[in-house]
UniProtKB/TrEMBL annotation:
Domain (Pyridoxamine 5'-phosphate oxidase N-terminal): residue spans on this chain: 7-128
Origin species: Saliphagus infecundisoli
Keywords linked to the UniProt accession: Oxidoreductase
Gene Ontology molecular function: oxidoreductase activity
Protein name per the record: Pyridoxamine 5'-phosphate oxidase family protein
Amino acid sequence: MTETSVPEEVEEWLTTGREMAHLATSRNDRPHVAPIWYRYEDGVAEFVTGGKKLENIRANPRVSLSIERSEDGVGQWHVVLFGTATVITDEEKLWAGRTRLFQRYRGRDPSVEEDGEPPEALVRVEVASASWG
């Protein structure tokens, strides 16, 4: 099913658990897909990134994220989000976004000493449509 808004049941899928997303970007008519940590709230997906993904988003901010929960290779549910990305490089906002992701996936705050250098940007995707099943 494809809709312009994400129903409450699907929002619950996206906000509980620790599934990773696969981010799809495109540059020069070539797709690029990479796994990422993400966070979803109020119609916005956010993640932190750098490198090729960030280059692609800056060149073409139209992206999609695919998230799936499976058990023993059997899909329980899947969601695909489509939207336009906004790049945020403000250090305080970037660190706050990184902290939210670490809290979700690791249950703790990040530390530069333990987790390496922070990524270059926080990316927020305003979800325009979604499909799920």
